[in-house]
Automatic annotation (TrEMBL):
Residues 114-512 form the Glycosyl hydrolase family 13 catalytic domain. The keyword Isomerase applies. One of its GO terms (molecular function) is maltose alpha-D-glucosyltransferase activity. Gene3D superfamilies: Glycosidases, Golgi alpha-mannosidase II, Oligo-1,6-glucosidase, Domain 2. Residues 1-13 have a biased composition (Basic and acidic residues). This is maltose alpha-D-glucosyltransferase. Pfam families: Alpha-amylase, Malt_amylase_C. The gene is treS. Residues 1-76 are annotated as: Disordered. It is an enzyme of class 5 (isomerase). Keywords: Calcium, Isomerase, Metal-binding. The keyword Transit peptide does not apply.
Amino acid sequence: MQAPRREDARRQGEGLATLSEAAPRSSGDGGADGIAPLAQEADRLAQEGGRGQPAAPGTATLEPPERGGGGDPSAVLSIRPRQEVAGRGRPSADAAAGQPVPPTLWYKDAVIYEVHVRTFFDGNGDGTGDFRGLTAKLDYLQELGVTALWLLPFYPSPLADDGYDVADYTAVHPAYGTLGDFKRFLAEAHRRGMRVITDLVLNHTSTQHPWFQRARRARPGSRWRDFYVWSDSPDRYRGVRVIFPDYEADNWTWDPVARAYYWHRFYAHQPDLNYDNPMVRRAMLKVVDFWLRLGLDGFRLDALPYLFEREGTACAGLPETHAFVRELRAYIEARYGERVLLAEANEPAAELARYLQGDECHMAFHFPLMPRLFLALAREEAAPILQVLRDEPAIAPACQWALFLRNHDELTLEMVSPQEREELWQAYAADPQARVNLGIRRRLAPLLGNDRRRLELAYALLFSLPGTPVIYYGDEIGMGDNIYLPDRHAVRTPMQWSGGRNAGFSTANPQRLCAPVVVDPPYHYEAVNVEAQLASPDSLLNWLRRLIAVRKRFPAFGRGDLELIAGDNRRVLAFVRRLGDQAILVVANLSRFVQGVRLDLAAYAGCLPEDAFGGATLPPIERRPYFLTLGPHGFYWFVLKRPEGEIPEPR
Ligand SMILES: OC[C@H]1O[C@H](O[C@H]2O[C@H](CO)[C@@H](O)[C@H](O)[C@H]2O)[C@H](O)[C@@H](O)[C@@H]1O
Ligand SMILES: [Ca+2]
């Protein structure tokens, strides 16, 4: 491992815009220390909520807590029901008639694209991506086939954790534009039929958030103090793991102003909110109101397991946390109808399934599957994937896994055994510079050796296994990374739009860019960029567009069951996705060599496999094993068709 980076962590905001540069909206709002009192903050939210309207009946109210501030987490919040059930921020005809709008389960058929406003496209030429820039690129995303966007945090923040350190939940970071710019972006996305979800950083704030600044000065035991988790000694919750071990030694940090320790699961500049305090829960519901009234389609719930702490536990996924998620879901559903909650919970599958029982989240990222896709590619055998699929716990019919290969963080190896982690590090991060915490800070293409066949295979699995695929911006063109940037900025470099100035990301002076563009020779923006790939019919980008278009023809991929198909070659993975009379056979060769496989497809005897891409039909399936050959890292998607159109019942 590289030398510990704890000091780096405290400096990591350097070179990036700071909140003070970005004109903090809270200063001057009143209060002796320049910080708005919470009640005033609540009033502001009420005034600004959604479209400049006062808080609607039925939304959360910030009432003074009962004395002592603690409270029973299972207690029902003070919420008055409201009759409105809106679609896209406006009551629909049904809602206006008082009828709930039936859920569409749109997220099951979605193709989600994770995008960082900061590094996607600079619309005003100041070197930093912004909402004007993102809006200008919506046509590109639509043509790619994307149907939903997930935006990383774009709120006012000192950016010491790239926005996951929120200083104001209900505004836009000035570097990214205005709330008006956000509204225009949302309207334009909706006009193209795209949904938008954003990160909701529930667990913690920045130390610069007015709530923390007030808490640290407040009297111990007071309602303001109790917005965060304090202790006189760092001995509470001993043994709870540190999530960023390269940067932090402990989950407690001494605050000289409060003269107490505060709890933080992530960086020391990210104090955990105290969800035992009903005021915190209400405050977060007001944040939810603010964005949903604007018409947002849902939230990625960041760091969801860590909301509550209890002595003697791992302080993760506690019953109290699930109780709060249920309240959050019920609150949203009663007021806004179908808005999606996507859990970011880096936990084993059995734990994840607890969020997916129908009354908490709609989706959860499949953290156990992701590293096993990479393990299967490294070992060139199907077993690691099969193991996850066989052990997969049941989830409610309306729920869905969110599948991903890469995201804005390190490729986290928290969900594999220490031996598997070592194996993955050896296979994908031989250079210690590529490692961070318990993971690997590399993008998809460098991880897979820029090998086009392996990239296509990885995408073919992402788009055919049960769940909704999530693409990380830039991975559609096989962008590289910069492991010499601090922390996870390695994988957050500017989008490469062209071979021109600043990769087409910005017209600014190159020295003013929010992050350097990639110039590593194999991934240099002059070679790897959208413009060049759009012009090349065989580019990765055009190939992926075709793959997405094919997936969209078959609802079985988003909504169907999974049937594993037995074969006689451990290097080949085979399964059928079924929905009604639609059945798609997926066969994937994990090895770099040609493979043959005999598949037990007796249940489909009589069916004709038709290639979903080219339409060629193979000989009919018989009761005896069906023989297929696959090229290196080859894969097939076959539509199983009976001559008379009937597909047999599942076994
Ligand atoms: O807001 C703090 C962090 O929350 C998310 O972290 C998640 O990613 C971590 C890896 O970087 C992972 O170890 C942890 O279990 C997750 O909660 C968010 O995605 C991070 O960017 C952020 O720093
Ligand atoms: Ca800009």
